[in-house]
Amino acid sequence: MFKSLEEAQLEVMVGAMTSVRVQAGDQVIRQGDAGDLFYVVDSGEFEVYVASPASPDTKVMDVVNGGSFGELALLYGSPRAATVRAVSDGKLWALNRTTFRCVPDTLPPFQPVRK
Asked: Is residue 22 within 8 Å of residue 85, measured between CB atoms?
């Protein structure tokens, strides 16, 4: 998600992240809720569940160190598409939508080189 960012933009994003400590069993996000935070896992293990009318809770993936979740909230402002629970105690880094959307404005406009 961040591979196309300039180094200066990446520095702004990292500087704007806040540390979030979680305990095993904590629900970090709940499917259907409004969301404005994106999370990067520093430590711990997290399970991602999706509910549907046919199945109340289906585990779809695990997220561990270096993984992330909650990006749809940043990109589209959509309700949470899944529920994420902490399997173990851990540490997350959270980035809010406002900062994410402002990052492109942190670089000067492109100026072509004139000869």
From this structure: no
State whether residue 7 is helix, strand or coil: helix
When mean pLDDT is compared across 1-15, 31-45, 81-95, 101-115, the lowest value belongs to: 101-115
Query: Do 47 and 100 contact (CB within 8 A), yes or no?
Result: no
CB 85 within 8 A of CB 26: yes
Domain spans of the chain, in order of start: 18-102
CB atoms within 10 A of CB 52: 9
Residues in the chain: 115
**pLDDT, tens digit (0-9, with 9 covering 90-100), for 62-81:** 999 989 999 887 788 889 99
pTM confidence score: 0.80
Topology of domain 18-102, per CATH?
A: Jelly Rolls (2.60.120)
Q: How far apart are CA 95 and CA 110, in angstroms?
A: 26
- Using the Cα atoms of residue 14, residue 16, residue 21 and residue 22 in order, give the sign of their dihedral: negative
